[in-house]
Amino acid sequence: MRYQFIENHRGEFPVRLMCKVLRVSHGGYYGWRRRPKSMLRRWQERLSALIRKVFEEFRGIYGSPRVYRELVARGIACSRKTVAKLMRSMSLRSKRKKRFKPTTTNSAHQLETAPNRLDRQFDRAMPNEAWAGDITYIRTDEGWLYLAVVLDLYSRRVIGWSMADHMRSELITDATRMAIETRSSSSLDGLLHHSDRGVQYASDACQELLTGEGIVCSMSRKGNCWDNAVVESFFGTLKLELVSHERYATRAAAKQSIFEYIEVFYNRKRMHSTLGYVSPVEFEIMSA
């Protein structure tokens, strides 16, 4: 494996230096290169190419467990340990998720708030038992872009979203209306909608929309971001996997990028460990 590591990185570092660091002779390395390739080595090279293809296809966010599962799903016979070893030899490391920092919530208002009916019961047995919503912000050269989302806690799917240059209540109601339309084939009566205690969620416009659909309101306790941890985690994932690697010149560019991430990648393609390593949409289809 040391010779293979040198081979994989010979375009980046001097061969003699790598041989010295890895404590092998450069003559031994060149002798290894001249020998006919064994069946094992040919298979490892094929598998390494497939690993790199999956890693790049999924934007460099997958570590060895997810890469392994994706390869198996494609009919490639391999072991998790081999995938992990080959990824280390190729210096393929997944992007690391930082601990999320909760967004600022304006709860300094006199509007009526709801109790925490969700009570951190994030794992749900059926779709449309409980939704969760929140707002975050994305920097652009034109100024802040605000994103509101609604997730179905059953599948972690983003079923509603809205983006604007403001945080008025219509940002929330637009995302909620989209969620209602997405789930229009099902009754929403008695569904639990959880959010923070922000003024947008406590507003008359938001509360009237929820009440009109028979949706029951739940709100986090004051100053407790963990009460809405699933949505906060999604925002952390979005920023780690997409936003932190982009510089958006305009809000329109950010909107297009975030739309593609949510609807094309996150909902339909990205494996979710909580769902048994399938995407939210696939999870809903499998359990229908």
Which descriptors apply to this entry?
288 residues, alpha/beta, Nucleotidyltransferase, domain 5, 5-stranded mixed beta sheet, 5 strands, elongated
Describe the structure.
The structure is a single chain. The chain has helices spanning 2-9, 15-22, 26-34, 39-57, 64-73, 80-89, 169-182, 199-202, 204-212, 229-241, 251-266, 280-286, and strands at 130-140, 143-152, 157-164, 192-195, 216-219. It is of the alpha/beta class. Helix 4 (39-57) packs across helix 5 (64-73). The chain contains twelve helices and five strands. Strands 3-2-1-4-5 form a five-stranded mixed sheet, sandwiched between helices. The protein folds into two domains: 2-89, no CATH class; 130-286, Ribonuclease H-like superfamily/Ribonuclease H (Nucleotidyltransferase, domain 5). A hairpin with a 2-residue loop joins strand 1 (130-140) and strand 2. It is 44% helix and 13% strand.
Report the CATH architecture of the largest domain. Answer: 2-Layer Sandwich
| Category by helix and strand content | alpha/beta
What value does the Rg take, in angstroms? Answer: 24 Å
The fold-level CATH name of the largest domain is: Nucleotidyltransferase, domain 5
Give the oligomeric state.
single chain
Low-confidence stretches: none
